[in-house]
Specification:
Residues 7-61 form the HTH lacI-type domain. The chain is α/β, with parallel strands linked by helices and 344 residues long. It has 3 domains: 9-52, 434 Repressor (Amino-terminal Domain) (Orthogonal Bundle), CATH 1.10.260; 64-170 and 305-330, Rossmann fold, CATH 3.40.50.2300; 172-302, 3-Layer(aba) Sandwich (Rossmann fold). It has 12 helices and 12 strands. The strands form 3 sheets. A 6-stranded parallel sheet has the order 2-1-3-4-5-11, with helices on both faces. The chain has a 4-stranded parallel sheet with strand order 7-6-8-9. α1 crosses α3, α6 (106-118) runs parallel beside α7 and α10 (233-245) packs across α11. The termini are far apart.
């Protein structure tokens, strides 16, 4: 067959001797098509040099081809890395990703889920910590239950308590405990901890794992050793500044996320303190930038893009019994030059 201008889907269906609906499904992947029919349609499309109308295809297939991704803050490198993994798998499967940031506002998250339900998105992925809030849990369940009952797919990253859906769980508690052991092995016995709000499950897990491991070694954190601030770079800067203002009494500062650790490094530098000569600093996540800091940051490395990839794969995989599938991913302590050995 010769290539023609303005080749339509009807031309492809006619050449393949199939119905228009079968041709559309074979080309757009919106529903299963028998293999021999799909091959016939693809061969006809290739011979006719058929180019689908991308806008029309998006409109026609929006119900089946759109994935909604809701995270706390896409400007945070942690969420950007996880979202990147989601987008790779979604792109490989011909799906469009809609990305929204809640800025850690529970009500906004519920509103976004409601919007995605109305848009009939094929899947909804929630990235980041849940909230220790029964009212929020009930409201979110009220949105997700009918969506799931109608055939929607939901997968989450780092939310083990609140939602009974497919989950990818970084080992936050175990990773923080491993970090505590590594810092103890370096000789540290006086610590300060920078945390986000402990209403966030990720924060409570990381802080709890770190604190409990220190306690096993006979090292206790006093209330004054722990400063809570926003889960951001500026939050880390403010928390570190507060510790410095009242007199830092620690040889090592552990921030429960790398972005807080970056803020802490900036505050220490502005106060004329050297890391690690005056105080060691460690974080959690291993976002890409921390390897290029001066000094590079000791941290718990999580496979961030793989968290997103696995969540997207769960959302794409049939789960007829709707039994909750949980995929755990471990972190690894990476010692860099922001920490040093000290005499106990």
């Amino acid at each position: 067959m010769q290539a023609r201008t303005h080749v339509t889907l009807e031309d492809v269906a006619r050449a393949a001797e199939v119905s228009l609906a079968t041709a559309s499904r074979a080309l757009n992947g919106t529903a299963p098509v028998r293999q021999h029919l799909r091959e016939r349609v693809l061969r006809a499309a290739e011979e006719l040099a058929y180019t689908p109308n991308a806008h029309a295809r998006a409109l026609a297939g929006a119900t089946h081809r759109t994935v909604g991704v809701i995270c706390h803050d896409v400007s945070d490198p942690y969420f950007a890395a996880v979202a990147g993994g989601i987008m790779r798998v979604a792109g490989d499967n011909g799906m469009l990703v809609m990305l929204a940031s809640t800025f850690r506002e529970p009500e906004r998250e519920i509103a976004y889920v409601s919007m995605l339900r109305a848009e009939r998105a094929a899947a909804i992925l929630l990235i980041g910590s849940g909230f220790e809030d029964p009212d929020w849990e009930r409201a979110l369940d009220a949105e997700l239950d009918p969506y799931l009952a109608g055939g929607g797919r939901v997968a989450v990253v780092s939310r083990h308590r609140s939602l009974k859906v497919d989950s990818v769980l970084p080992e936050n508690r175990a990773g923080a405990a491993a970090m505590a052991r590594s810092l103890l092995d370096l000789g540290h016995r006086r610590f300060a901890v920078l945390t986000g709000s402990q209403a966030l499950t990720t924060v409570s897990d990381r802080f709890g794992g770190f604190r409990d491991e220190l306690k096993k070694a006979g090292v206790r954190l006093r209330p004054a050793d722990v400063v809570e601030a926003p889960f951001t770079r500026d939050g880390g800067y403010a928390a570190m500044s507060e510790l410095l203002a009242r007199g830092l009494d620690a040889t090592c500062v552990f921030a429960v996320t790398d972005v807080m650790a970056i803020g802490a490094l900036s505050a220490l530098r502005e106060h004329g303190l050297s890391v690690p000569d005056d105080v060691s600093v460690a974080g959690f996540d291993d976002i890409p930038i921390v390897r290029d800091l001066t000094p590079p940051l000791t941290t718990v490395a999580l496979p961030l893009p793989q968290l997103g990839e696995r969540a997207m794969e769960l959302a794409l995989t049939e789960n007829p019994g709707r039994r909750r599938r949980i995929h755990r991913m471990a972190g690894e302590v990476v010692i860099r030059s922001s920490t040093r050995k000290v005499s106990p």
